[in-house]
């Protein structure tokens, strides 16, 4: 198995119900432009879990019992009722340890088009959510606090998942706190295939399998698509990037201190040709301009047989909103371009970032609020209570693909034991684990790349006889001149 696949496989063994897992974010964990809203709960700490770093902030010690500060924190959206309840409980317990810290709930969801305005107006929360692509961007803009000293003083730093943590390690400095991660896969409505008499493809599948399955199950006259690739917003470019990776392509490279666009390659053309085949085969939705929520909603409602995303979001919606059973849903890795090829999916994650404009006291309080839930027995109790509450409501709990803790963490085994106790925890397959191949998103201007490719994909989906190579070249030229040419890599 390839090295990164092996690493991810180890991580997943500690993350999921079985000794395995499946391969984050638009109002869910798994699109490129929002934080996770998967049903998994962040484990909660107990009131006795006071910070064990003696209050060292790097600028003087702080006593949790006497520290006075006001911090604003990322608060789940109104539709995430269970997560709001868990956050309210965490605030209550946090204030038992930090009685003089006022915690203000912020409903702002990270948006790369808004963060500059928020920072300029000093309206960004003290602690806000973001996603894996944003580490270098936020650090270079000065919009994420350097929390290296706080991190180094954290006694459990060595137990954090390095696969996630490294995405916010910029030149040896830490700018973000990992929450959870994902490897993009394809979620399949097995029941739809069986009802149409369509053979269920093997997990070790290919682009040809995807196309043939989509053709067999699609019913355009009834508004049912075989697959629903996202076509609106940066999600469209994000979805397509998986196929670029599977074809062996790259988004960019660093050459002689310069960032060079590489996605208009033969591999990029091959990936775009596959998208064109999907359109020509009439297996995508007639209204193809779908964002993350639209595509995942179509899956949950049985209007498409396949959707591309971090798996826990579509699985959760299918089970808890679409009325599906676990037997109806199969999580696949991304398909290989050809038999024997890599099942490469974008490796991403959800993070918390501290506002650099906050005072040392506020940054200290925000950091400890962010990790307050981590590695505690009370956290396991809170998680188990959440699973039990869902069971009482006949709902399922869908774990995240990759957790914040490292693969050799004792805490990881404890959490796995909790999952194994309940039949309403969704289980990913062992075979899936062996096939996953995660590739991190681009280091520079990822969102701008996604946006440029979204324009290309919309051309392909909306017009006939599109010159695919010309579209790719134009997009690469735009990204190169407007963004990459402004970067100097030391």
UniProtKB/TrEMBL annotation:
Domain of life: Bacteria
Keyword Ribonucleoprotein carried by entry: no
Pfam family for this entry, one: SBP_bac_1
The keyword Signal is assigned to this record: yes
Annotated segments matching region Disordered: 25-61
Xref: InterPro entries: Bact_solute-bd_prot1, SBP
Annotated Low complexity bias: 28-56
Signal peptide range: 1-19
Gene3D superfamilies: Periplasmic binding protein-like II
The entry's keywords: Signal
Protein name as annotated: Carbohydrate ABC transporter substrate-binding protein (CUT1 family)
Natural source organism: Cohnella phaseoli
């Amino acid at each position: 198995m390839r090295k990164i696949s092996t690493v991810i496989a180890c991580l997943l063994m500690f993350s999921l119900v079985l000794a395995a897992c499946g391969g984050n974010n638009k109002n869910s964990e798994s699109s490129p432009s929002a934080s996770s809203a998967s049903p998994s709960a962040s484990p909660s700490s107990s009131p006795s879990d006071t910070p064990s770093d003696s209050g060292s902030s790097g600028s003087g010690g702080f006593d949790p019992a006497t520290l006075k500060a006001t911090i604003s924190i990322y608060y789940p959206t109104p539709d995430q009722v269970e997560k709001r309840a868990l956050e309210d409980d965490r605030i209550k317990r946090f204030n038992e340890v930090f009685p003089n810290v006022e915690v203000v709930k912020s409903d702002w969801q990270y948006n790369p088009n808004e963060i500059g305005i928020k920072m300029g107006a000093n309206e960004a929360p003290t602690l806000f959510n973001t996603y894996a692509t944003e580490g270098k961007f936020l650090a270079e803009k000065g919009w994420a606090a350097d929390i290296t000293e706080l991190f180094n003083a954290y006694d459990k730093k060595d137990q954090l998942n390095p696969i996630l943590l490294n995405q916010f390690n910029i030149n040896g400095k830490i700018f973000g706190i990992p929450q959870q991660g994902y490897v993009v896969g394809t979620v399949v409505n097995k029941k739809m295939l069986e009802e149409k008499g369509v053979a269920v493809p093997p997990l070790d599948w290919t682009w040809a399998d995807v196309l043939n399955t989509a053709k067999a199950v699609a019913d355009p006259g009834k508004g049912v698509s075989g697959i629903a690739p996202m076509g609106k917003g940066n999600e469209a470019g994000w979805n397509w990037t998986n196929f670029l990776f599977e074809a062996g392509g790259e988004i960019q490279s660093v050459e002689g201190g310069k960032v060079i666009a590489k996605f208009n390659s033969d591999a990029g053309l091959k990936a775009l040709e596959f998208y064109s085949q999907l359109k020509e085969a009439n297996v995508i939705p007639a209204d193809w301009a779908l964002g993350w929520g639209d595509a995942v909603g179509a899956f949950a409602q049985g209007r498409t047989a396949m959707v591309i995303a971090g798996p826990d979001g579509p699985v959760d919606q299918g089970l808890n909103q679409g009325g599906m059973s676990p037997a109806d849903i199969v999580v696949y890795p991304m398909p290989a371009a050809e038999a024997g090829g890599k099942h490469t999916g974008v490796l991403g994650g959800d993070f918390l970032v501290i506002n650099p404009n906050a005072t040392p006291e506020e940054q200290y309080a925000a950091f400890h609020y962010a990790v307050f839930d981590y590695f505690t027995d009370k956290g396991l109790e809170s998680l188990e209570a959440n699973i039990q509450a869902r069971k009482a409501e006949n709902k399922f709990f869908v774990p995240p693909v990759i957790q914040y803790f490292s693969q050799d963490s004792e805490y990881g085994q404890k959490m796995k034991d909790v999952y194994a106790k309940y039949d309403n925890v969704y289980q990913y397959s062992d075979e899936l684990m062996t096939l996953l191949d995660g590739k991190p998103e681009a280091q520079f201007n990822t969102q701008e790349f996604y946006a440029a490719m979204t324009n290309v994909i919309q051309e392909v989906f909306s017009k006939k006889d599109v010159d695919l190579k010309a579209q790719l070249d134009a997009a690469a030229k735009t990204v190169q001149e407007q963004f990459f040419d402004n970067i100097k890599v030391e």
